[in-house]
Amino acid sequence: MPSRVLPTDKIRAEIDGLFGSGRDLAEIIEDVARLGARLLIQTAVEAEVEEFLGRARYQRRADVPDARAGSRNGFCPTTVPWRLIGQTLHARTSGDIVQIFRDQHVVATHVRRLSGRATNMEHYPPETIAFHLQGPTWCRKIATDVGPACELVIGDLLAPNAIHHLRAAQGILRLREKYGIDRLEAACSRAIEVGDPSYRTVKGILAVGTEAQDPFAGTGTGDISAVPAFLRGPDQFSSN
Question: Are residues 164 and 185 in the same domain?
């Protein structure tokens, strides 16, 4: 591998070479002044680049915390269309542009970056795109449109840790496409009444069509403990 020489070192070498060239001293001084100005500008540029990268120009990324081992001058994960996963692709840089090729055809184009990620949402599968577009704010807005019970269910789901319960919230709201807004609102209300406002419960209520039933009907009481249930007594868990 050829040795890498900094531009500032190249300029200094040119200045040293002038004094051994045997040329007229006046011409040498003129060239030294010109090269000296270039050296000052190049030194300032390299200092800004090092500050931006957080490392020296030719320092390997492995010497910098949280860097991919062996990467030089920055590493930027780049997306390609999800249908090309597992296939052999080629990349080419031209100025500030990075192009990804498959069989000589361009399949992705990104602006070159020194760090971070180059992401194109169109490269993701449809379900992943929907997940990112239908965030917590979207879920809360749609739940408000459905009704107060749905708004309460979605709000409770997203309150503790929104990102961990986002798929469950999205799943509940997608049920309106199959069952309609009115039935979804009734199912959310029923799930709240029985004390389990989860995606699985709301979906189950809609699947069996019991969202309009009174959970205490036929018991003659408003106490949930009077609701018939299949329970096992202690004798069912005997070790004998």
Answer: yes
pLDDT tens-place string over residues 33-87: 888 888 888 888 888 877 776 666 666 555 445 555 545 555 566 777 777 778 8
192: which 2 tokens? 């709240």
Residue span of the structural domain in which 45 resides: 1-73
User: Is pTM, for the whole model, over 0.90?
Assistant: no
Q: Residue 71 and residue 50: Cα distance in Å, rounded?
A: 16
Q: Contact 46/6 with Cβ under 8 angstroms?
A: yes
Spatial CB neighbours of 134, under 8 Å, sequence gap ≥ 6 = 170, 173
Is the domain of 49 the same as that of 87?
Answer: no
Asked whether residue 231 is assigned to any structural domain, the reply reads: no
Whether residue 65 sits in one domain with residue 97: no
Q: How far is CA 196 from CA 107, 178, 187, in A?
A: 47, 21, 11
**Distance (Å, whole) CA 217 – CA 194:** 13
Q: Report the alpha-carbon angle 7-13-19, nearest 5.
A: 145
Residue 109 lies in a domain: yes
Domain contains 14: yes
**What is d(CA 222, CA 232) in angstroms, rounded to the nearest whole number?**
23
Which tens digits make up the pLDDT trace of 133-181? Answer: 778 888 999 999 999 999 999 999 888 777 788 889 989 999 998 999 9
